[in-house]
Design a protein that fits this description.
Mean pLDDT: 89
Strand content: 35-45%
Helix content: under 10%
Structural class: mainly beta
Distance between the termini: 72 Å
Number of strands: 43
Number of helices: 2
Oligomer: single chain
Length: 598
């Protein structure tokens, strides 16, 4: 059967059983790929040959691609005929991009694609998130192992994200299933495309034809993300977003007397805008950019409507602290480290190096974020290998700062994390964490972060850290910690010891999981013993044993007893004894503290 006859047969075989929602129906019969429909990309690396097939035309080793608009994604079917006149390998293969969010950069898109060939000579389905590519349907290995590869691939997807991948070789009458998978990482499509990766001698060995796509578009209900705010020349800002935006009703304004821009230039893909202001931005000033009326093309409003920017200052020890560590990777997500800016400066996280200490005490090489990430006073940022994956896993709110960084795996039991500068000459903060610091209710620490209770607490103390709440999927990367507490609340009377709260529920759900025991002294030199007794008067926990006190401070009881178990619900008694060894004076108080279930 000729390939031209196969075209007609294929159409009826694929679509005779269900209604057609015609999205793409391309057979290159007009000898042109630039209209009806228009394909865009590396156009110079493709031609339509005399057999009315799209053929590769690369002069050197390349990764060439073409895309055309297609929003088919719900109850969708994609089909394509592919021929590779050369044995496939890791350097010679083709790809059918069935759903992509962009058409201008093959290495930056979020997409699903079917790979034809490769090292295992198979037809497989991949999820692409920028440069990260994950195989979600592993095709039959060796199925394409021939001198010349010729195959028709077909992929189906229902509205719940169930994919099934098929292939058919020239001598086969029916399609063969390569496998099934469910994946909902990507929720919509803007483009369908073709790609081939060729070596220096195979630039004309790839052929594509009979591209048929049907299905219905999905409704975009996802709010766009504000990815970056970049400072350019004097008075110029560039705003970058996660998807094409509608700028027609958008307004922008900067505080400190700068005002609105006098000109704006939208990028060709509508993912960024360059704003020009009459005033240049000054060193040492922290500005706030506010936006209004900015939506994506589906009308979803930008949820983060203001952002701080300015020229970053140099950090000093104590300006930035370790604030959260996810050191035992969750299933389906990644490890991360979070820091918080406790200074009054505008800092840049890209100037920080995240590393660990070796057994001999020296520092490993470590890594820094690849792109600038400004941290205003009080703000935090989490660094991780896959920022999008971490955001989704923990349902991070708009405005949370999670940025990608090359990663070195952290030890699951214990390690020393160090925050330093590029030369490793200045240590800003350092933490030796332990798996044993987790709350007794945490039976399996996998996927549970340790959060700093307050930046006012010293870093290297078990009492300064607490397991992240179950309510946040055990982590709060890039935003306020679930276990954050104010460290010093004013007393309601003249007491030298008071509790906040007086009743707490140490169930690790993020709601009053710890009891803060605040104290104050009227002169220096006091020491303290702090104990907890049960209703029968039996000591169950000792929080301080002759500790030298500050002028004011806080102890934390997380409901853990001396034997390592969690306290049962009931009324306990806190005994706080404060004595002055030199003067012989002594104060003591007993206060009820209630452990309850929420």
């Amino acid at each position: 059967m000729s390939h031209g006859m196969r075209k007609i047969t294929l159409i009826f075989c694929l679509f005779g059983a269900f209604p057609v929602f015609g999205q793409v129906d391309e057979h290159f019969s007009d000898g042109d790929f630039t209209h009806n429909p228009a394909w865009e990309g590396t156009e110079e690396c493709f031609v339509v040959n005399n057999a009315f097939q799209l053929q590769s035309a690369a002069e050197a080793a390349s990764k060439s691609f073409l895309f055309t608009p297609s929003r088919a994604f719900g109850d969708a079917t994609w089909a394509c005929w592919v021929k590779i006149d050369y044995p496939t390998s890791a350097y010679n293969y083709a790809a059918f991009y069935v759903a992509s969010d962009r058409n201008d950069d093959i290495d930056a898109c979020r997409a699903y694609y079917v790979r034809i060939g490769g090292a295992n000579d198979a037809v497989s389905l991949f999820l692409q998130q920028g440069e990260k590519k994950t195989e979600i349907i592993k095709g039959l290995s060796g199925r394409l192992g021939a001198e010349t590869v010729e195959v028709t691939v077909k992929l189906t997807r229902d509205r719940e994200g169930r994919f099934e991948l098929f292939s058919r070789l020239p001598d086969e009458m029916e399609f063969v299933s390569e496998g099934m998978a469910v994946d909902t990482t990507i929720g919509q499509s803007e483009y369908v495309g073709l790609m081939y990766a060729n070596s220096g001698t195979t630039g004309r060995r790839y052929f594509f034809d009979d591209i048929v796509v049907t299905g219905s578009p999905t409704v975009d209900r996802t709010a766009p993300q504000w990815l970056a705010l970049e400072m350019g020349d004097a008075g110029v800002l560039r705003l970058v977003f996660s998807e094409p935006m509608d700028f027609s009703n958008a307004a922008f304004e900067v505080d400190n007397g700068v005002g609105a821009p006098y000109a704006q230039s939208v990028s060709g893909d509508s993912r960024s805008v360059e704003l020009s202001f009459s005033s240049a931005f000054e060193q040492g000033v922290i500005y706030t950019m506010k936006t209004d009326g900015l939506t994506d093309r589906a009308g979803n409003a930008l949820l983060e409507t203001e952002r701080v920017f300015g020229y970053a200052e140099a950090a000093e020890p104590g300006d930035v602290l370790l604030n959260e560590v996810m050191f035992n990777q969750p299933e389906g997500s990644c490890e991360y480290i979070e820091v918080i800016n406790v200074s009054g400066k505008l800092l840049d996280a890209a100037k920080l190096v995240f590393t660990t200490r070796k057994a001999d005490g020296t520092l490993n090489a470590g890594h820094a974020p690849s792109a600038s990430c400004l941290l205003p006073p009080g703000a935090c940022v989490a660094v991780t290998e896959d920022a999008e994956l971490v955001r989704r896993h923990h349902a991070c709110p708009p405005g949370s700062r999670v940025v990608p960084m090359k990663w070195s795996v952290l030890n699951n039991e214990e390690a020393t994390v160090v925050l330093t500068d590029a030369e490793k000459a200045v240590v800003y903060d350092e933490l030796t964490y332990s798996e044993s610091w987790h709350h007794p209710l945490i039976r399996n620490p996998k996927g549970v972060a340790l959060e700093r209770i307050s930046p006012d607490f010293i870093t290297q103390s078990e009492d300064s850290w607490h397991s992240a709440s179950s309510e946040t999927n055990y982590g709060t990367p890039g935003y306020r910690n679930s276990q954050y507490r104010e460290t010093f609340e004013p007393a309601v009377d003249d007491s030298f010891v008071w509790l906040e709260p007086e009743a707490f529920s140490p169930d690790n759900d993020g709601w009053e999981d710890v009891c803060m025991i605040h104290y104050r002294t009227d002169e220096p030199g006091y020491a303290a013993n702090v104990l907890v007794f049960d209703a029968l008067g039996v000591e169950v926990c000792r929080l301080a044993d002759n500790d030298l006190l500050s002028s004011e401070g806080t102890y934390v009881w997380d409901g853990t007893l001396a034997n390592g178990t969690n306290a049962n619900a009931g009324v306990y008694v806190l005994y706080f004894e404060m004595f002055h060894p030199q003067k012989g004076s002594r104060k003591a108080v007993k206060k009820p503290v209630v452990v309850s279930g929420r």
